Amino acid sequence: MGWFKHFILAFLGGFALIHLVHAQDQTGFISIDCGLTANSSYKEATTGLNYISDATFIDTGESKKISTEFKGSYQQQVWSLRSFPQGIRNCYRINITQGTKYLIRATFLYGNYDGQSKLPQFDLHLGPNLWDTVIIKNVSYSVFKELIHVPSLNNLQVCLVNTNLGIPFISAIELRPLNNNAYVTQSGSLALLVRKDVGSIIDRTVR
After folding, report:
1. What is the dihedral of CA 35, 88, 146, 200, to 10 degrees?
2. CB–CB of 79/71 below 8 Å?
3. Going by C-beta distance under 8 Å and a sequence separation of 6 or more, which residues neighbour residue 207?
4. What's the pTM?
5. Of 16, 4, 3, 9, the residue nearest 184 (C-alpha)
6. CA–CA separation, 46 vs 205, rounded Å?
7. Among 90, 158, 153, 148, which residue's Cα sits nearest to residue 127?
8. How far apart are CA 204 and CA 48, in angstroms?
9. Which whole-number Å values give the CA distances from 179 to 28, 74, 99, 128, 149, in the listed order?
10. What is the mean pLDDT of residues 160-184?
């Protein structure tokens, strides 16, 4: 029964994202391309979403690019990434609207950016709390981590934590404001378990 509950939440979440993207009203959206050149921005060709550089949200890490052989299979926001070879804990600080419910998505595509084909594992934190463990199992597969969260402050921190199993990195961070009446919980945040597009007749990724 617990699995079914999580499935329904993820299923409804998919509909929420479809509505947000197709409406193209990006009010309140925060779409960060990690590793993008400072002061750069662009409109992603497939989704029409506007992405900005992560340079104003963090002052550590190194900007990198995935191998060119993988670019054609992915949207532009994962062509670059920020890796963190120094330090145990590196955090993004993002200003948001306190008390607003957000869907927060972190995306990871290794893409053999360092030419070493060494698949890392590291922890992802939201503020001081463990969000999830990121396990990269394939050079060319992207990993997504999502939370529905109501911040108690006017900013939040997304942190990459080195667990001595490879160099942490991140490709994109996206925040989408949600109706506060959606996904009501007694306490805490909701993490995505699985999302399925049931009954679709088109072979297309919807975000």
Report:
1. 60
2. yes
3. 17, 21, 47, 49
4. 0.81
5. 9
6. 9
7. 158
8. 15
9. 12, 29, 11, 26, 12
10. 91
